[in-house]
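Q: A reviewer asked whether we had any structural model of the full assembly, not just the individual parts. We don't, so I'm hoping you can provide one. Inputs are below.
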Amino acid sequence: MVGIGPGDYREMTVRAVDALNACDVIVGYHVYVDLVKEHFPDKEFHTTPMRREVDRCKLALELAREGRDVAMICSGDAGIYGMAGLIYELLGDEGDIEVEVVGGLTAACSGAARLGAPLTHDFAVISLSDLLTPWETIERRLECAAMGDFAVALYNPSSVKRRDYLQRACDILLRHAKPETVCGAVRNIGREGEAVEVMPLAELRDYEADMFTTVFVGNSHTRVIDGHMVTPRGYRDV
Amino acid sequence: MVGIGPGDYREMTVRAVDALNACDVIVGYHVYVDLVKEHFPDKEFHTTPMRREVDRCKLALELAREGRDVAMICSGDAGIYGMAGLIYELLGDEGDIEVEVVGGLTAACSGAARLGAPLTHDFAVISLSDLLTPWETIERRLECAAMGDFAVALYNPSSVKRRDYLQRACDILLRHAKPETVCGAVRNIGREGEAVEVMPLAELRDYEADMFTTVFVGNSHTRVIDGHMVTPRGYRDV
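A: Here is a predicted structure for the entire assembly that you could use as a starting point for your response.
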């Protein structure tokens, strides 16, 4: 299970590169396969479409049971909203396949690096996708994150079918956070068309995110310094 | 600002390796400098002791102002409890030094990969160190994380002066989470003596963590599968 990071080959770990070089076959969602293909031209690739995660994992396990050394790639980190958990669930207690999880840069980390340092203190990571999670659970987590004054990274802030989700999320956060709370958005991290924006929470409410955007909400101490979004590590003056 | 990941050279990103190869001088806490030194033997290294973070950043800025290309290394990710925020704070709006943050594998990601997939769903990252944060703030965040049924990664769970902090944290989590909540601890991630343990929250309360341990607390759906700590990505049956 190999996390390939945000997309740029250079943001893969050395261990991930080694794993892809060493394996027999690479399985993944076609968008991620396209991102790595040119760097591993001699490999056998298998792709499945979006939302066919279970099929993709079953395919990887099938190939492994045939004795192949399979690298299943995920964007970001294979364990953060990735397929690592699903592979363990599908394997159950049979344990006939040896699984190794190779970590990667999740969007919270790679996106934060583009904005400055928004996650230098305690933070929460929340996905706004309600495909596999009841919206009430997401709402509750947003509310608790705001009550705890966590900095927050929001994954999957929007899609064609969920246009107003980011707005709904901001409205929940605004119950506890000030409208001027420093926020940021990073689009296409490590890919063509990378774009970064810093704005107050009141403005984030009307921001048009897409499915390649990661959104950051600061805590009550987050500041804008020379255009960067910065959450101080502590409350001691420097 | 270069995150070097958990410690093993192979878990650095290609971009971090490139940055350390390209720079003139490497600045860091001596433990982290010792971890990378052998791979970059021709570099000039500067170290400062623990807790001298402000001095370390000032030294890096001083060297940069002399025209040197400085890589400041942090363990994990430079932006997660790392020095990236402090560098921006010290620079202020002067902006006379160009800063680039190179992300790295933070312990939440590298530790999770060792345990299985404990962070596949929404999670919170909380440091138990009260050196720079009032304990009341930490308590409040623990309580909110538990109320939101977040999986949690706990950084700095213990030290010589804070022996009972993990116990105090568990007691707060236990106000909302069940004693059988699946938890895990990873010691010396990516370094000599790496060790992994999975246990219920009631047992974590009496676990002896040290300052090189990262602790993971599952959400209400986290399970043990074949010895691994796994948080399902969604609530749909597979």
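A: Points you may want to mention in the reply: The longest strand of chain A covers residues 182-187. Chain A touches chain B through 80 residues (CB under 8 Å).
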